[in-house]
Specification:
alpha+beta; six-stranded antiparallel β-sheet; 34% helix
Length: 89
């Protein structure tokens, strides 16, 4: 499995303060209904060329996003896309 992830570009952990972590989290899978999702540790979405994990902090009103994609450009674009959904008012 680790070999399958070699060469992926990673966003690193991005912390975003939100008023309601549950509501912000639930907007993301609605925006990507065709992606495989799991909820073992927060919300994980998996696409063919990228994946992300979004989970709430246990101590602060924020969400942590980690995203990886095959290219740096796609990682940057997908990260911006997911963050825009999370940060919707």
């Amino acid at each position: 499995m680790a070999a399958a992830c070699d060469g992926y570009a990673a966003s690193g952990a991005i912390h975003t303060r939100v008023a309601a972590t549950s509501a912000a989290t639930e907007r993301v899978p609605r925006a990507f209904p065709s992606l495989r999702q799991t909820r073992l540790d927060g919300l994980t979405l998996e696409a063919q060329d990228w994946w992300c994990n979004l989970r709430p902090s246990n101590t602060e009103p924020l969400l942590r996003l980690n995203l990886e994609a095959r290219t740096a450009a796609e990682c940057e674009a997908r990260t911006a896309e997911v963050l825009a959904i999370v940060r919707e008012a």
